Amino acid sequence: MGMSQDNLRGFILALLSSGFIGASFIIKKKGLRRAAAVSGVRAGYGGYAYLLEPLWWLGMVTMIVGEVANFVAYAFAPAILVTPLGALSIIVSAVLAHFMLKEKLHQLGVLGCVMCISGSVIIVIHAPQESPITSVQEIWAMATQPAFLLYLGSVIVLVVLLILYFAPRCGHTNVLVFTGICSLMGSLSVMSVKALGTALKLTFEGKNQLVYLETWFFMFIVATCVIIQMNYLNKALDSFNTAVVSPIYYVMFTSLTIIASVIMFKDWDGQNTGSIISELCGFIAVLCGTILLNSAKDSDRGSSFRGEHAPLSPTLSTGLFSGNRETLKHDEENELLPDDICLRKQEPY
Predict the structure, then answer these.
(1) Residues 6 or more apart from 183 whose CB is under 8 A from it?
(2) Residue 242: predicted pLDDT
(3) Quick check: 278 and 325 in contact, CB under 8 A?
């Protein structure tokens, strides 16, 4: 199946997003190392010297550029194409870390990279073509169709049930509770992001969509979903090991996002069964590759030191677009590095 111009733009933007975001973690990590070497206190132990480190800020700017590219990608391409490509950021980070930070990429990690790339290629080749959208009111009609309203109602009921009943009872012992809330709300946030991005794209093309109440409503939904996601993703990361939360969140978030997109935007309408099966196989390959990469990172951490470690709060982009990126952030600020060990040995007891 040939790739449309919009799909091609979305694909390129998603690739650029993964490249910038993956590189940003390496740049920030080098900045954190420099700041720790100067101040003697790591960020993971309460140090804030990195705020004065230009390299760290360069990493932040790089991440922001990547997230803007990711946001715009949703305006051009279907979520079933853009969302799984977020896994490529962890490949970029792992490869750059291997060469720039001398963090060895083991065979398990290499296999994970190959699976992610293979799966992404399959998804891109068989990605569905979206019907042209001429106004935000068309998206509103899609969001209010009975099938999506049923999905929306189911998500709201499940989220309320998880928050009010399950979270107080087993939220801190069952990883599926908090990650389930994040993933369910995440699927709605991506649909709203896509609607808002499309409205802004049409506005820049000369068809002003800011005059419609629906545009502002989608913006309100994005803000509400992100706040809820951030709150419960923080709870999940505070209660469980990041290496456990990250792959589970990625699986649930991406799966629910694809389901929501298929229902709302009719991504699979007009596609043959072979293309749909190929997309699912590609997604499974990306999923397995991501789990392997996370397993390799967890193994490396376990070989260097033992015990629980509290991850820091995730960024907005992490909660909104890709769960696996939190693993990268956790590595960047909480991993015990040789330089950090030396610094800690110099501290008085």
Answers:
(1) 249, 252, 253, 255, 256
(2) 65
(3) no
First-to-final CA distance of the chain: 65
Q: Are 115 and 296 in contact (CB under 8 A)?
A: no
Left (φ > 0), alpha (ψ -120 to 50) or beta: where does 266 sit?
A: left
CA dihedral (156, 271, 119, 321) positive or negative: negative
Helices (H) and strands (E) in the chain, counts: 15, 0
Residues contacting residue 205 through CB under 8 Å, at least 6 positions apart: none
Query: How many Å apart are CA 325 and CA 48, to the nearest integer?
Result: 22
Residues 6+ apart with CB under 8 A from 343: 36, 37, 40, 41, 42
Which is nearest to 27 in space by CA: 57, 50, 52, 70? Answer: 57
Q: Is 65:184 a contact under the CB 8 Å cutoff?
A: no
* Residues 92-127: tens digit of each pLDDT: 888 888 888 777 777 888 888 899 889 888 988 888
pLDDT in tens, 243-290: 677 778 888 888 899 899 999 988 888 788 898 899 999 999 988 988
Q: In 10 A of CB 338, how many CB atoms?
A: 10
CA–CA dist 208, 191 (Å, integer): 20
Half-sphere exposure of 133 (CA within 13 A, CB side): 29
Q: Tell whether the torsion through CA atoms of 326, 332, 337 and 341 is positive or negative.
A: negative
Residues 260 and 151: beta-carbon distance below 8 Å: yes
Structure confidence by residue, pLDDT tens digits, 246-255: 778 888 888 8
